[in-house]
Amino acid sequence: MFRQALNVGKTQAPLTLFGIDGKYATALFQAAASKNALTTVESDLAKIEEQISKNAKLNEVFSSPLLSKPAKEKLIDSLGKKSEITTNFFKTLLENNRMSETKSIIAAYKSLMEAHRGIVSVVVTSANPLGNKELKQVKDNLTKGGLIKNFKEVNVVNKVNPNIMGGMIVEFGDYTIDMSVSSRLAKIEKLLTDSISI
Does residue 122 contact residue 142 with C-beta atoms inside 8 Å? Predict the structure, then answer.
């Protein structure tokens, strides 16, 4: 069902995603685009994500190898009315024992839809919270430097991780720019241990 939809006129995804969640989200995006149902599928996934966030046990049930496939299929049906593409997609996830990836696939599909709309999300990880001035400077450097092209809007989000010690890590699409103190120290340590072992 779902695989047949993928073979009909593949639509290029606006963003290259990697990993299991990226591959499944891209396949869903392509199937939905071929049927002009991108927003319908997005709406279906938003409803499912809301139900998962309201009921933490739902995600555990999806991941459980103890629950039979027919029981999981009933669970999928109980998630409410969905489009044919979304229903077939979840049946494919069930067949391939990938129901545990549901949350990450939904997040990846959101990224694809943002890129489709001309929006790119940039995650800036720093040891301490960054102010609006610093985030704007990062955004300006990425857009003026030509690293981010063909996007109407750039959303910059700051994550705090004290383990990076200082500097920052900038992630967008399939790019990672690591300017953290911890990675620089790791490189220096590697150089020192490599030169000592020679």
Answer: yes
Structure tokens of 67?
């629950």
Which pLDDT belongs to residue 70?
86
Average pLDDT, rounded, for the chain: 86
In single-letter form, the type of residue at position 7 comes to: N
167 sits in the region (left: phi over 0; alpha: psi -120 to 50; else beta) called left
Structure tokens at 119: 């929006």
Torsion angle of C-alpha atoms 27, 115, 117, 141, degrees rounded to 10? 180
| pLDDT tier for residue 197 given thresholds of 50, 70 and 90 | low
Give the whole-angstrom CA distance, residue 133 versus residue 21.
Answer: 34
**Sign of the Cα pseudo-torsion (33, 38, 40, 42, in order):** positive
Please state the rounded mean pLDDT for residues 148-170. 88
The letter for the amino acid at 65 is: P
Q: What is each CA distance from 94 to 65, 75, 84, in whole angstroms? A: 11, 11, 15
Q: Which two tokens stand for residue 147?
A: 């690293």
User: Is the Cβ–Cβ distance between 159 and 123 less than 8 Å?
Assistant: yes
How much is the pTM? 0.72
Rounded to the nearest 10 degrees, the angle between the axes of helix 84-95 and helix 19-34 is 150
Average pLDDT over residues 84-111: 92
